[in-house]
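The authors assume throughout that readers already know how a fold can be written as discrete tokens. What matters is that the chain and its backbone geometry are given together, residue for residue. A single example would do more here than another paragraph of explanation. For illustration, here is how one protein appears when written out as sequence plus structure tokens.
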Amino acid sequence: MPDTYLNFQELNLHEQEGRDYQIKTSDNWHSVLIIAPHGGNIEPYTSEIAQWIAGDDFAWYAFEGIKDAGVRKLHITSHNFDEPSLLKGLRRAQIVLTIHGLKNSIDEFIMIGGLDLTLGNELRIALQRSSFQVKESEQKYSGVRATNICNRGCTGKGVQLEISFALRKRIVQDTECRIRFIDTIKSMIKTWEQSTKVAKC
């Protein structure tokens, strides 16, 4: 299903902040930025997951659809997502992780995309070791365009997680699963941040 709006400026002409959508961010930007570009009612639970991963350690951003009817109109595909405050935060982000939602409500799995293939592979290994199923990313979820929001940090590459609805729901409802999932990702990002692999902006 094609997007209604081509970019944020077009969306903002027809939708009202505070009524149709809202933007939430952490208090400060950081070299690690966790993003939910389709949060709220657009792709449920992605905002919560992004904030849990960030915690008090990293920066986070969520664009949330808050209206009930027609919320799908608020979806701007990742390679067109250009909300100004997020672009500003991305200028100092060395590690970017975006959280997305797949519709599958039966199978619990993750697809990993983005241009940071090395970090993406490390996350895949860590998640599999923590008993999460990681499927090969389909082309439309590969996140390899340079303009994809996950690749617009100062290094020009990032990671995109596509999480099935079934797994997102379990992460929210099952405390053990949530802790295992969040800790796995957070631990890997912290290790990566401290390593020499991260380019300085």
Notes: Strands lie at 21-25, 32-40, 59-65, 95-102, 110-113, 134-135, 159-164. Residues 175-194 form the longest helix (20 residues). The domain at 8-189 is CATH 3.40.630.100 (Aminopeptidase).
